[in-house]
Amino acid sequence: MRATSVDDPFERGIAHFNAREFFEAHEAWEQIWLRAPAAEKAFLQGIIQISAAFHHYAHGNLRGAESLMQAGIAKIRNYPASYRGIDVARLVGEAEAWSDALREPAGQPRKVPQIHRTK
Length: 119
What we know:
The protein has a two-stranded antiparallel sheet with strand order 1-2. It contains five helices and two strands. The chain has a single domain, classed as Orthogonal Bundle (Hyaluronidase domain-like), CATH 1.10.3450.10. The chain starts with 8 loop residues before the first helix and ends in a 16-residue tail after the last helix. Helices cover about 60% and strands about 5% of the residues. It is mostly helical and about 120 residues long. The radius of gyration is 13 Å and the shape is globular.
């Protein structure tokens, strides 16, 4: 497991996401997405889109939230279950449950997921 560092934008993004600071998470990850290699870029864009989806949800934009959630899930779904120390399989499952709930007229989304570490 990697050591958490405030100076590491990836780790800072995780901390912001888990604190429900979705815009800040997006901003932290975007710093590294801009210069990431292609193989990494899709993963980073996926978690950025999932974070942006929760930001839209918090501001009442359910259509934007659902659209971004689906786009983010599609980007990270094919990565290994554990990638960069993140439990990707769990994040995908929780994001899919949110996406399903957002499509239901009276859907009650679940608790906002956390980004969990793999061991």
